[in-house]
Design a protein that fits this description.
Layout (H helix, E strand, L loop, with lengths): L7 E6 L2 E8 L8 E9 L5 E3 L7 H42 L3 H35 L2
Antiparallel strand pairs: 1-2, 2-3, 3-4
Length: about 140
């Protein structure tokens, strides 16, 4: 079952997962999934589902999954930023060496606005960090 705790299946969704208990010991000898909870990655909340709430051990497994998922998503976000930097560099090289005037006209205004917005946010955040550092001295 990969990184999932034995006996549980996590159907991931945008803000967490639906958690299922995997049942292999049934009369039909087929794999059955019984939803037992919904896990919210943003706030760590676990909501039991129907009349079959998770056991204490399953709750601990769900909490462990939530923590691991939060770390995975955080790592992905950072990786996305480094990819964005690479894409900006590749875009600059393409714009300088290969792009036609028509191609540049198609996206220049949108890209300039997005870069301006990003610059404003980064400068403000950097200023805030510098002010905090000075106040901490």
């Amino acid at each position: 079952m990969g990184d999932n705790p034995e006996g549980l299946y996590f159907r991931t969704r945008e803000n967490g997962a639906m958690v299922f208990r995997v049942d292999l010991e049934n009369r039909q000898r087929r794999l059955e999934l019984q939803q037992i909870a919904v896990a919210n990655v943003r706030n760590g909340e676990i909501k039991p589902h129907n009349e079959t709430p998770p056991t204490d051990a399953e709750t601990r497994d769900i909490e462990t999954w939530i923590a691991a998922r939060q770390k995975t998503l955080s790592n992905r976000a950072i990786d996305d930023i480094f990819r964005a930097i690479d894409h900006l560099n590749l875009t600059a090289q393409w714009a300088q060496s290969k792009a036609s005037d028509t191609e540049l006209e198609e996206f220049t205004d949108q890209l300039l606005m997005a870069m301006h917005d990003l610059r404003l946010v980064l400068v403000r955040k950097k200023s805030d960090r510098m002010m905090k550092a000075q106040a901490g001295r």
